[in-house]
Structures are given as C-alpha cells and as structure tokens.
C-alpha cells in the first residue's frame, strides 16, 4: 500500500483564555478549534481527514491532549 505523502507536523496549541486552541502546520495557521470535532473538520479542509486525530503521531498536542477543552467546562465566571 502506498503511504500518504509526507505532511508537516500539525500542532494543536495550548488553550487560549476562551478555551479555543489554534491549529497550525509549520508556520501556517489552519484554523481555530473550540472542540475536538473542530480539529477533525480543520484537518478535513486541508485534506488530512484520514488522520486519526486522537492517536496520530502527526499531531502534537501542546498544553493538554484531545480531551482538554477548558472553554467547555461547566464552571461559570462569578
């Protein structure tokens, strides 16, 4: 089987204050994700939809893994 062409590493950056995470490949920002499904969609839009997002070695998760989305917490500002 042919292997897909080599892709630069995709980085999901640490959560911002609003909980969103920037997704980059090299120096290019691919998009902003607020949930794991957003990461999947961003990768689909750049033809990387065959990547297993939560387990791929092509994705580097900084500041927390695929389950870390602090903006989705049920805590409210007081």
Q: What brief labels describe this structure?
A:
78 residues, alpha+beta, 22% strand, globular, disordered C terminus
Through-space gap between termini: 56 Å
Q: Provide the spatial order of strands within the biggest beta sheet.
A: 3-2-1-4
- From the spread of the alpha carbons, the general shape counts as globular
- Give Rg in angstroms: 13 Å
Provide mean pLDDT, rounded: 83
What is the N-to-C order of secondary-structure elements (H for helix, E for strand)? EEEHE
Helical stretch count?
Answer: 1
Uncertain segments are 74-78
Specify the structural class.
Answer: alpha+beta
**Helical residue percent band:** 10-25%
Report the portion of residues in β strands.
15-25%
* Quantity of strands, as a count: 4
Major sheet attributes: 4 strands, mixed
Describe this entry's structure for a reader.
The chain is of the alpha+beta class and 78 residues long. It is built from 1 helix and 4 strands. It has one helix at residues 36-45; strands at residues 10-12, 21-25, 28-33, 59-61. It has a 4-stranded mixed sheet, covered by helices on one side. A hairpin with an 8-residue loop joins strand 1 (10-12) and strand 2.
Reconstruct the topology from this structure.
Elements: E1 10-12, E2 21-25, E3 28-33, H1 36-45, E4 59-61
Parallel strand pairs: 1-4
Antiparallel strand pairs: 1-2, 2-3
Task: Write a concise synopsis of the structure shown.
The protein is built from one helix and four strands, in the order βββαβ.
């Amino acid at each position: 089987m042919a292997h897909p062409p080599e892709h630069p590493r995709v980085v999901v950056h640490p959560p911002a204050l609003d909980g969103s995470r920037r997704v980059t490949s090299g120096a290019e920002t691919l998009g902003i994700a607020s949930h794991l499904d957003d990461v999947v969609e961003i990768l689909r839009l750049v033809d990387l939809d065959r990547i297993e997002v939560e387990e791929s070695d092509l994705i580097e998760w900084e500041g927390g893994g695929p389950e870390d989305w602090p903006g989705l917490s049920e805590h409210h500002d007081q």
